Fold these 2 entries.
Entry 1:
Amino acid sequence: MKEIKVLGTGCSKCKLTMKVIEEVAAEQGVQVDLQKVEDLRDIMAFRVLSTPGVVVDGQVVHVGSVPSRDLVASWLKGAGA
């Protein structure tokens, strides 16, 4: 199972990022532990200055825009259901 955190204070891009990740994971049959991180101190701990940010298994993998479905799929590749 992949642990994925979406960093952001609740903007529309952050919400869309959550939705895209949920949809791609469901399509691939991959279970994810998807969390929304809204506290600015927690976001800054990842050194993310532009949201949305995405953290997969502790590593920042995307910052500043809504990731494409293909990019999200690449993060989930190899993850078991």
Entry 2:
Amino acid sequence: MNINYQDYIEIRVDKRFGKPCLKGTRISVGDVFNWLSDGMSEQKITADFEEVSQEMVRACLAFAADRGRKLTIAA
């Protein structure tokens, strides 16, 4: 299943200083990555933050993958 991260992530200068955030929340993509790197599972994140869905967590991964591809192409 391919997730279009643009359906779940927005970048607004008036929210979290322009950091990419989950739509309808103040939760940044970086927050989600910090939780994952601290060992939280998708299930734990969605249980602790009811406004976050499994698709939103996966959209963060897709967002990072896309950014990584763009950095590779630019280099």
